């Protein structure tokens, strides 16, 4: 570490992720920028000890050079550096390989099945586009790289980035973190380009996952598919001839951001207003991106079963489900939207009255302060992901429950089950009866038990923060390099 400590300047952290943490809208020659919601953004907002630069795609197609230059300088103020991708690449790389191949596979949903032969062809095209896009990211990182910088690559979009960066300079400190699960090697091995992807990502110095299980799955994939040696600290003997550290770094949130929000007068006002609106009823809450992996239809079916079986609760409970549409260009996501609307319509038709409905479903994102108010008035949070790398919604709910001490129903297939499991009601989200029973149990839970669960979760959420996560990852990344340097000295 000494090398970086001599100068008093903060160490630069280049965070490379598919999307920049802003959404850009063009008004003629100028651009307006807005901070966008999402897991990674929420986590890194809490990190202040590094001088952070973001490198990523701005989420818009900017075909003209004038527009590109204008956006680049607008982004500079936000310490963001854009990667420009043309529409075809975005389609093949982002909608295609990332969201239609890797995302479902990593969440145990298999590979795209429709029209097998042409799918294979397009899978190859999409993989080529994926590499092209990763190459673009590498070029931009290289253009701003300074010695001493630490580079932290994020997620399944950028598995080739460690390889391409090391080709520029083998001494770059490169870490890679996966925000999704890494599946069992039995699932992963189906992927046609399984070996190339593993080899590329193994060029990193440190590879991180949310849970120990994901790390173990990854090491198994490397041993079984590449025939490498898995050790307790990582994977040995990859093409560069050195050890790649593999470890678990469970992400967290910035809990202070939530407690600060809750102490604001306007948020307190909002809480009062919601309490009046929901008076006489217990409030259940779901907050998800509208994504197959979040198990929203399964959650709704469980709630329906609960209402079916518990007549006495029908006018005493309501479910607020906030579902932000994402990836609206991908076919499965459009199908999911109509499926969810259909189920919500049926349940509200069956159990609604002239003045109320059991489900308040919103197809949009809530602003941060309203979201905090909603978390605070909730009695039971319902997280039923079919698979989820971690799931930060469960953490955010806990952070906002200081006075209420509400109950968390949590999918055992979300990474968060390994950290908040002891303070939650764990369910198999595929088992509708199980979830319906958990809802009843949660609504009836005695205060002493609620308090005990809440304290356990609150302790975890306030100590395992986003800041700790990033600090731990980056300092371990620095140490890994030192180790490698020592090895060559020996
Ligand atoms: P996501 O799949 O996006 O993240 P999650 O961890 O729950 O899932 O984070 C979602 C974030 O978006 C939260 O901060 C939440 O508040 C916000 N959000 C979601 N819906 C919203 C809405 N309707 N309105 C406003 N805000 C909303 C991915 C992985 C996760 C992993 C994270 C971080 O899929 O498993 O936990 O990355 O690594």
What descriptive keywords fit this protein?
alpha/beta; 6-stranded parallel beta sheet; 490 residues; 19 helices; 18% strand; disordered N terminus; binds adenosine-5'-diphosphate-glucose
Structure in words:
In the N-terminal section; belongs to the glycosyltransferase 20 family. It is a single chain. The protein has 490 residues and is an alpha/beta fold. Helix content is 49%, strand content 18%. The chain has 19 helices and 17 strands. The chain has a nine-stranded mixed sheet with strand order 5-4-1-6-7-8-11-10-9, with helices on both faces. Helix 15 crosses helix 18 (447-463). The longest helix has 29 residues, at 116-144. Residues 1-7 have low confidence and may be disordered.
Assess the beta-strand content as a share of residues: 15-25%
Distance between the termini: 18 Å
Strand order of the largest sheet: 5-4-1-6-7-8-11-10-9
Q: What compounds sit in this structure?
A: adenosine-5'-diphosphate-glucose
Fold blueprint:
Blueprint: H1 2-5, E1 12-19, E2 22-27, E3 30-35, H2 39-44, E4 51-57, H3 65-76, E5 80-83, H4 87-106, H5 116-144, E6 150-154, H6 161-168, E7 173-177, H7 185-188, H8 194-201, E8 206-209, H9 212-226, E9 229-230, E10 234-236, E11 244-248, H10 255-262, H11 265-277, E12 282-290, H12 296-309, E13 317-325, H13 331-351, E14 359-362, H14 368-377, E15 380-383, H15 392-399, E16 407-411, H16 417-420, E17 425-427, H17 432-444, H18 447-463, H19 466-489
Parallel strand pairs: 1-4, 1-6, 4-5, 6-7, 7-8, 8-11, 12-13, 12-15, 13-14, 15-16, 16-17
Antiparallel strand pairs: 2-3, 9-10, 10-11
Helix pairs in contact: 4-5, 5-6, 8-9, 11-14, 12-13, 12-17, 15-18
The structure holds adenosine-5'-diphosphate-glucose.
Protein name: alpha,alpha-trehalose-phosphate synthase (UDP-forming)
Organism: Ceratopteris richardii
Family: In the N-terminal section; belongs to the glycosyltransferase 20 family.
